[in-house]
Amino acid sequence: MNDAANQKQDMWLIGNVNSTVATSVTKTLNFGTEIDPYLLQAFDDGLYKTYWKDYITDLYDVQRRLFSFKAQLPIRVLLDLKSNDKLTILERNYIINSVTMNLATGESQLELLNDV
Question: Is the pLDDT of residue 2 over 80?
Answer without folding.
Answer: no
